[in-house]
Amino acid sequence: MNLFGVHNGPAYLEGIVKKVTDGENQEVEWKGKLQMSDGHDKFHIFYYGDLMEDLITWQDSTPLIVYAEHTLTGERYLLIDAAKHGYDAMLCETYPQEELSKRTLRPYLDVEGEDTFEVHLSVFYNVPWDEEFGEDVDEDGTYELITGEHMDFEQVKRDGYDAFSIRIVNRKGVTTEIVQEELA
Fold first, then answer.
1. For a designed S-S bond to 166, which of 23, 140, 175, 179 qualifies (C-beta 3.0 to 4.6 A apart)?
2. pLDDT in tens, 67-114
């Protein structure tokens, strides 16, 4: 278990996601809601992957990617890139850059044709990073990923989650789970 991740959530989402506590003491799950500092919480979703019913999945062997776009400013925020986030992408798998660069984004519409959503995230931290990999951290506090990139070990523990899900809620209050990724 990775309590550091559970308490802090993914590092790349810091500043754009408000941690959600629902009264339950979650040992391995971090929950958040995409929300700007001014309170704005409505977004369009853009993704690369296949749709299996409402769920965004990998397209063949090419990892999915999901962005949320601010409805007023048009600024996009990366929610997940399965080619670089999560345990497998950081420690086990590499993907051809030519395939990753071909991932064109499409807008997400739910079953009711809605395109504006609140975005809720759940991130799971079952990997005991300190116990399994702590001795591989160099004197600068960095860890070498499978890509050869060196990353601060605290960030590795936050972004190296083993599962990730996205739920969206449309204007009518209809909730849809659009991502369920097991990444370890």
1. 179
2. 999 999 999 999 999 999 999 999 999 999 999 999 999 999 999 999
Task: Report whether 182 contacts 162 (CB < 8 A).
Answer: yes
Residue-wise pLDDT for 105-146, tens only, equals: 999 999 999 999 999 999 999 999 999 999 999 999 999 999
Q: What is the DSSP track for 120-155? A: EEEEE----HHHHHGGG--TTSEEE-TTS-EEEHHH
**3-state SS, residue 87:** helix
Kindly write down the DSSP assignment for every residue of 171-182, as one continuous string.
Answer: TT--EEEEEEEE
Alpha-carbon distance 27 to 1, whole Å? 8
Any residues with CB less than 8 A from the CB of 162 and at least 6 apart, and which? 86, 87, 124, 125, 126, 127, 182, 183, 184
Q: What residues contact 149, with CB distance under 8 A and at least 6 apart?
A: none
